[in-house]
Fold:
Amino acid sequence: MSDRYAQVEVLHRARPRSRLIRWSALLAIACSALVWFASEISFADMFSTKRLGHLDRFITNDMLPSKLRGESFSWGGLGDWCAEQFQLNGARAMFATLCISVLAIVLAAVAGAMLGAFGARNLMSAHPFLPHATVGHGDCSHGLDRVAQFTRFVCILLRAVPEYIWAYLLLAMLGTSAWPAVLALAIHNAGILGRLAGETIENLPSQPLRALSMTGGTRRDVAVVGIFPMALGRYLLYFFYRFETCVREATVLGMLGVVSLGYFVIEARAHGQYSTMLFLIFLGGMLVMLADVVSDIARRWLQKGI
Amino acid sequence: MVHLGGAPVLRGVDLEVGSGERVALLGPSGAGKTTLLRAINGVIVPRSGSVEVQGTALRNLDQRRLRQIRSRIGFVHQDHSLVANLRVLHNVVAGRLGRRGFWSSLRDVVRTSKTDLVEVHRILERVGIGDKLFQRTDSLSGGQQQRVALARALFQQPTILLADEPVASVDPTRSRDILDLMTELAEEEGWTLVASIHDLALAREFFPRVIGLRNGEVFFDGPADALTPKMVTELYSLDGLDNAGKLDGEGASKEQDG
Amino acid sequence: MAKPLPLAQRLPTRRVRILTGIFLAALLAFFGLDLNLGDLIPRDSGFRLVLEFFGAAFTPAFTYQSSTGLPEGTSPFLFKVGRGLWTTLTYAIAAMSLSLIGGMALGLLASASFWERRHPLWAVLRWAVRLLIAAMRSVHELLLALVFLATLGITPAAAVLAIAIPYSGTLAKVFSEMLDESPREAADALSYLGANPLQVFLIGRLPRAFPDIAAYSFYRFECAVRSSAVMGFFGFTTIGLYLRQSFENLHYREVWSYLYALIIVVLILEVWSSQLRRRFVA
Structure:
């Protein structure tokens, strides 16, 4: 038995394993421990008596609409108040938020499709989809692989900067209109969709595309006639997946001063109308959930058709 | 001992398999071979009739009792029955899940005890792949993976081994080796072996008793030698396939999966 | 070349309809927002700012852009960048470690494969959890931060919690989908051997989904870094705070240093996760 165990130990020492996985896991655990035990983040402070006193006052007083304070609580009164708030700013805020996100995601999708095409390594080669053997003259890719590399880098660049910061910078440059919010969302999502589109194109089955290429189609022909119809289905799935996050993000961009939901939230806060603030946040939540459902339905419907 | 009555895909099947017997199930696809095997370990419950395993009727058993019975029945599948990205060791150790409590089974997988390690290694050597103990399962060939499945059954220590097309996805030369090993093990361990096999020659070679299923009914039951070429042609004849297809469509058998 | 078929003929009608719908919606949104294409071109001061700002991209700052008004003993600029980055990362790590626990727990409860082989009444709990997940995801972390600021005042834990709540929801949703999409044959085989539902799930199903779960967690961590950077706009001491201050002081080269710091973090994470993924698949 011990003899066999020695054999097992030899096998155990020779087992395939990855240092990278092991060290990554260790690093993750060590960092979490460090952050929780040795940084300024502490839940003890968050729930100190001072803060809980704050919270208590907020719940019992600040949170209630000023009209309803002091009176005994009634659902009817609250309902009337909500309807009034909805008509005052709520509906407008929701509509603007929705418009911003729709326009942004469409712009992002168009830009992302372009980035995807230029970033796909199988398309950006000297002789797209042709096996090297039939081409004959070595590995001259006319620098196209560089273009693909650069495009991928641009995608990372676009998505590395958060939407909120894009919007903040653009607002200073373009002045107040909905454009900074729309563009900020579009830029960030173009980076993400561009990368996803590139991956989609690279994962396409190559036979039909090779056939197109062999009959003498140029790169553009192959892209428009072959790749676009083949990749569209999957790309649309990603589109709706990102749309949902776009709506979510659009709710906050208004906080910079653009007319989306966040703008009215900030306004209400500045005037100390916390009840209005909470109600608007609630409306934002509803809008996001709605977008969630719509995108889910659209994705299912699309998948049935593929 | 197995006794089976009518089910939608299977009708009027009345079989008895003695302990230690080795039986091959033959028949065209859709004849009900897989259904019969699943009925034996209680995954499928026949609408009418009964299945008895070692004197226990499977009908109306509660989940716990059913799991107890299943833990004594090994099952080798055609393919994809192993957790591909776990190591071979963990797949083999999983053979005893049915006998262990939840926590001890979890410990088995996370940190296998020394005795189990040694036993798994012995078993793997028995099936010819001792050196693969710590390899990732999906790095093995199809034939090697079937050996892992057999090792899992060995570790499980069942009294019955059911095999559903165990060599259908293994290349022909290897499939003989696998069946050789499987029947040898069955003999050594005293298992009752019921296997569905596509290949007539293999069935004849390795199994003393052959049951031909056609159209959900028992078409032939007897020693392999008694199967004449004419019967074989009839067994696989087209109209049989046709009907079987229809029957399968209606086969609304209830799944009782636990 | 082969004569191309008209696009409409090659595309299934479903997709054509969706495409048309999308573009109509975009047009509606354009007019709904009262947008004006002319506003896209920055004027006067805006134009100067664009030139100056993007010009600064090529010369990010390594020291303070102007030393006037700096108090004595101010630490070097790169220290400040490093400190901002570290705080950003600590918030992100703390939020992510909470979200992974919450997301995993809720993700298990929300997945269909976890409740397989169990009494159908459990579906009620599953749907309740799914509703909870949708609610958690629906409120943006910045709005939550605002609520926490109003109720508890400024404290780092509030920012962490604000990020962790929606992130738990998102992780839970995606995890549950990944679990349900992972191959089920091996899990079935375990139940044939008499394993109980929990064993079947944890040993047969979960390991197969794990590589996807790890990869997605990595991506969400990258998102958490961005979210925590933005928290700086609300007064938390992450990189967003310094970035905003520099921008308001017109120190554009400093702004670019902060942006590059963020970009480098994302690049590192990108390379790291793709390397990890390769190891998992092999």
In short: Strands of chain B lie at 22-26, 44-45, 52-53, 56-57, 73-76, 160-164, 192-196, 209-214, 217-223, 254-255.
